């Protein structure tokens, strides 16, 4: 991350048109649709297709998958044309790279950070990493933080910081980890999948400064 520019912002787990419109109005960089089967924010294909037109071309759409079979991932790609696939499971690099799109690999930091970081070398095709606070095998979005100081000081690719971020701690997290982007879900919600406009604005202001 440049010392002069704030990190990019991704709001994840959006399920309602009005929340997407609010996020776009706030100038977020990325919006995440969740397709992980065990997530309370999971969208089915029809719901995702109905929401797709609210996301403008200026905002990247990220599709979050977790151990889904290739035909399911391909169906998501065909239905909503995401800009990036984000994988949270045990998917191999070749699998993740096999859909003609850039992919981000989520790294679960909630268990053994050293083992988690050792897994990075298994994903040479990842265009970015996303370090999340959940334990391995969990879908994320649960609001768990982790030790930001455990992250490496230098990586050969951009990385995103996720897990338990909200308006109250995101500035501290940015100062500690220097990520290229920050990803928030539960920290801007009043219920799973239901975003809160005031919390969304407060988060953006905490990252970029009040406007």
Low-pLDDT sequence parts: none
Separate helix tally: 7
Measured distance between first and last alpha carbons: 21 Å
CATH class: Alpha Beta
Based on secondary structure, the structural category is: alpha/beta
Order of helices and strands: EHEHEHEHEHEEHEEEH
Notes on the protein architecture:
By secondary structure, this protein is an alpha/beta fold. It has 7 helices and 10 strands. The strands form 2 sheets. The chain has an 8-stranded parallel barrel. It is globular and about 40 Å long.
Task: Put the structure in a nutshell.
By secondary structure, the chain is of the alpha/beta class. The chain contains seven helices and ten strands. The strands form two sheets. It has an eight-stranded parallel beta barrel.
Blueprint (SSEs and pairs):
Elements: E1 8-12, H1 17-25, E2 30-34, H2 45-52, E3 60-65, H3 70-80, E4 84-87, H4 93-96, E5 103-108, H5 113-118, E6 128-132, E7 159-161, H6 170-177, E8 181-184, E9 189-191, E10 194-195, H7 197-208
Helix pairs in contact: 2-3
